[in-house]
# Entry
Amino acid sequence: MTTQNTTAMHPDIERVLISEEDIQAKIAEIAAKIDRDYENRTPVLIGILKGSVLFLSDLLKRVTIDCSIDFMCVSSYEGDKSTGVVRLILDLRESIEGKDILLVEDIIDTGLTLGYLRQNLMTRKPRSLEIVSLLDKPDTRKVTIEAKYPGFQIPNEFVVGFGLDYNERYRNLPYIGVLKPAAYAGEGA
Ligand code: IMP
# Structure
């Protein structure tokens, strides 16, 4: 993990935690593992909206086995705080009965979101269900959840970029960074 980045930094970002290069290298690694583990199978990659959009699309470009995608949208965050109540906002289009499922998430924090989703999806009788998560904050876990395909472990800090937002902003940054305190006070650029 590097702390420097060649990409021009957004003025609201205090520091880059994970560079674009490191993210892309990790995604290539995860895709290679999925290719190996799911050879001769056709998994469904389920992207959890909205945070996983960039991760899912870059992962999808690198996975070479046959696969399909679907989406779910849940909400539990307001600003930079989890409300602790997970709400299902958008459900899958297709049945997952008998299918191999890869749940693709941006970050595991308390684990409440994935705990809820795992329980919900298991009632639909998939053949298998595994978790792929770009980031993991292990110190803040409330529900036991582990990604079979983990990306980076990070400390208990609020991060933005590469799909992750603060009040819907900063999702388009190609790296993961930490905001300047002024950005939380509504004084962002
Ligand atoms: P959990 O339910 O507490 O595990 O949180 C999962 C969701 O919270 C993620 O999908 C994110 O949308 C959001 N989240 C957790 N930590 C962060 C963060 O540091 N930045 C932005 N979003 C976060």
In short: The longest helix spans residues 20-37.
